[in-house]
Design brief:
With 420 residues, the protein is an alpha+beta fold. The protein is 59% helix and 11% strand. A hairpin with a 4-residue loop joins strand 1 and strand 2.
Length: 420
Amino acid sequence: MDALQTLLEPLSATPRLETTIFVVLLFAAALAADFVTRRVLLRLFVKAVSGSSSAYGGALLDRGVVARLAHVVPAVVIFTGIAYVPGLPDTAVLLVRNLANAYMILTVALSLGKLLNALGDIYERLDPLRARNKPIKGYLQLVKIIGFIFAAVLVIAVLLNRSPLLLLSGLGAMTAVLLLVFKDTIMSFVASVQLSSQDMLRVGDWIEMPALNADGDVIDIALHTVKVQNWDRTITTIPTWRLINESFKNWRGMNDTGGRRIKRALYIDQSSIRFLNEEERDRMKRFALIDAYLERKREELERYNEVLLAQGRDPVNTRRVTNIGTFRAYVAAYLEAHPRIHQGLTKMVRQLQPGPTGLPLEIYCFTATTAWVEYEGIQADIFDHLYAIVPEFGLRVFQEPTGADLGRWLPEVAGNADPG
């Protein structure tokens, strides 16, 4: 120490030079501290974490928590050493210390923000299923907002050299303004709590919200927004509070059930519906799916008709098998035997209200998969078969006349016209 004082004693004759040299030495010490912290200690920490399988250290590194916190060290050096620089006025020392103090507060606040992000990553890595069902991103964002507000108050208090309690007491008079400014944040927080507590939405859910043109998978749930990737690969951003105030459809129940609904109709030409005669009914027995149905129906109708005729009723009152009823029984048996149809869910073949486009024969069932591509393939295979086999029952599928139909009919009409 005596040697250092002896070395610096000649500088006392030139105060400005002495002050400049001390300031340069102080900043050199800050740079040296920054170099040792970031290039030596931080690298040792990185190597230690890289050799470990812990999810905590990896998340801290990925989010840059330690790297950001390392910026505090040179600020501490300046904050401590500026008081030992000779020749500086008290106001300059106070200003530098306040700036260094404010920088440390800001750095710590940013580090805490990155730490919260790292905690979110750790939560997702340790329990991905729980993180998907119960996301905490919105809560972490709220904590960050509160932390940054307090950090801003402390920074302002330090720069103004005032007590932070004085500033906080002044904020009480600005409550109405703050409520107005953070209205969306408060509403979004309440909505996030409701969505999470009632299990209304999870990452990966397929939702539909036509009012906002959203139709796709939820890819992110944050405090203020929910991101939906639509099927055309576009992204729709929905304010979180709107999911509480407005209705939306969640298809999660379909995935949980394991079946996806087919609800589609064949339109039968009503003029092709008729009774089957004995020969046609016997010919239908070659369909293995309805062989038992035809036999059971024959016995039922014979018993009914025998009683009816024994009472002296006119034969017009007897019951007979129709081609549409036989086809409906065939479709029901076909769905029952189909390996890709979910047999534990509702299966139904029903007639809807007939109209100008024919008689709708609706197929209502569920596939044994919820995958979109497989579902469409199964549905197409079923209707390919039904469209191809419907003529075997003496039925026609309704179709409005096309230009080709008119072109084929006009020459026949012209050829049958009376020349006179």
